[in-house]
Amino acid sequence: MYVVDTNVLIYAVNTAAPQHPAAHGWLTSALSQGQTVGLPWVSVLGFVRLTTNPRIMPQPISVPDALAAVAVWTSRPNAVLLEPGPRHLVLLGELLGAAGTGGNLTTDAHIAALALENRCPVATFDRGIARFGVDVAIPGQH
Questions:
Q1: How far are the Cα atoms of 35, 83, 90 from residue 39, in angstroms, in the given order?
Q2: Does residue 115 fall inside a structural domain?
Q3: 46 lies in a domain?
């Protein structure tokens, strides 16, 4: 399984982004293979929030188009919407405590805690998430 970060979802649909070919190719391949693709709700909601915001995206997509993309991803039999498990709060607290802060690192710590709970890497373009002791899989790199 992979836990997918918001940036992979955004780059997978944002054809203007230099990361688009890698993100789109990786996500398409991952969803067509047998390995589980974990989509945290925070990543899905971040995707919808950011891709539909004209202050963030030069060419935002509509809410129906954003939700349609999510529906395509989640319709795949190997895609799962990840929910925090029973150890999540403890893991999140440990990760934030070790980082010495919350703030902007809170979402990364949440995604890292999901990866630790599920014993899998995070698919992301953000190498900084590795500070939380998780394996990172950067789409397009082997």
A1: 13, 9, 21
A2: yes
A3: yes
CATH number for 14: 3.40.50.1010
Encoded tokens for 33: 């293979």
> Does residue 16 sit in helix, strand or coil?
coil
- The distance in angstroms from the start CA to the end CA of the chain is 16
Q: Within a domain: residue 43?
A: yes
pTM over 0.90: yes
**Is 29 exposed, middle or buried, given 0-12, 13-18 or 19+ CB atoms closer than 10 A?**
exposed
**Dist. CA 70–CA 68, nearest whole Å:** 5
Put the strands of the sheet holding 136-137 in their side by side order: 79-82, 37-40, 2-4, 122-123, 136-137
Q: How far apart are CA 6 and CA 29, in angstroms?
A: 17
Q: Which domain holds residue 31?
A: 2-132
Number of domains in the chain: 1
pLDDT tens digits, residue range 12-38?
999 999 999 999 999 999 999 988 999
